[in-house]
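hey m, so remember when u said the tokens were messed up on ur end? i reran from scratch. heres the input so u can diff it against urs
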Amino acid sequence: MTAGYDPYAFEPFAVTVDLAVFTVRAGALHVLLIRRGQEPYAGAWALPGGFVLPRESAETAARRELAEETGLPEELVAALHLEQLRTYSEPDRDPRMRVVSVAFTALVPDLPEPAPEGGGDAAHARWLAVHDVSELAFDHAVILADARERIGAKLEYTCLATGFCPPEFTLGELQSVYETVWNTTLDRPNFRRKVLATPGFVEAVPGAARLTGGRGKPAALYRPGPATTLHPPLLRPEGSTR
């Protein structure tokens, strides 16, 4: 112990992690939630998460809690790209004691269904459409709103949206991903112009086209290009995902 330092001079508090994990399912943005099996907030929906153990980092705790509470395969959870969102530290955010939470978020395609029975504090886990989520335990509604804003911004400057499309996709299918995450309707000609003007975003599949319904000609097919970031960014319309 450092000379002159008294660790008991400060009131103890706990550190937790919370995770807002999103995917696109059936044309809607979904978030992975758990139904709490214990007090406080027993029976309420909440983000997966829990307490950081003494010998683990916040990110290690986040992956452990996500696997424990949702039953998602550990190898899948280990490979997830988790982005630290922010720290939530309001004194009364948890009725048990002073708790500071480090929140993480991710937007990932092709995530499976969680296990029918949860672990830890979770009775079970489920994907819920974001527009169907009402009340959440603790301050998780605030975390969810902040996380949705973050992933909306992420689509502005990365090529992440192509991961939610088939290997060969139409620009309409790509636009649908943006509209789903941003919760808005985009002008089709303007979206097409911006996408095709962004170097390395998408590549045309020579000679490939697909009928998309209606009486128009088949739509050209594209695949992801070599870029990972968008220059210039594809900016959201004002008021979307907020």
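this time it looks ok to me. The chain is about 25% helix and 25% strand. if urs says something different then somethings off w ur setup not the seq
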